[in-house]
Design a protein that fits this description.
- The protein is mainly β.
- The chain has no helices and 13 strands.
- Strands 3, 4, 7, 10 and 13 form a five-stranded parallel sheet that branches. The chain has a four-stranded parallel sheet with strand order 1-5-8-11, with no helix packed on it. A four-stranded parallel sheet has the order 2-6-9-12, with no helix packed on it.
- The protein is globular and about 35 Å long.
């Protein structure tokens, strides 16, 4: 893929993103979204040994859905405006270990969390009933 391009898929299961350099994108280095149902949970994804740096907002953004048994390991994540890793959704049994996460909050972000520009943010999301 060329610099700044994106990949889209309808399934977020058992993917591996490994050994890449992901840098200088305007928004996120890696951004994944799923629906809000357990039946459509993203499972078995692995983010391993990547260099993710200097992207606009967030290094790895996992948002909007149910995330079960995924692994984020051995990555270097730095130089983002907001978070190194951001997970705002239904997270269960995920493993985040052995990552180097530093020098985020380059944009002076004043968001959620104890400090702005957290290295890792794990939150919850409530979708309004319709």
């Amino acid at each position: 893929m060329t610099r700044g391009s994106t990949a889209t898929t309808t399934s977020c299961n058992n993917n591996a993103i490994k050994g890449n350099t992901i840098e200088d994108n305007s928004s996120c280095g890696i951004s994944l979204n799923t629906s809000y149902t357990q039946a459509n949970a993203a499972t078995g994804n692995k983010f391993l040994e990547n260099i993710i740096e200097g992207n606009g907002e967030i290094g790895i953004k996992i948002d909007g859905g149910v995330w079960v048994a995924n692994t984020i390991e051995g990555n270097t994540i730095s130089g983002h405006q907001n978070y190194g890793i951001y997970n705002n959704g239904g997270a269960q049994k995920n493993i985040i270990k052995g990552n180097t996460i530093d020098d985020n909050n380059r944009g002076g972000y004043q968001g959620a969390g104890k400090e702005s520009g957290d290295g890792i943010y794990i939150g919850s999301h409530s979708e309004a009933a319709t």
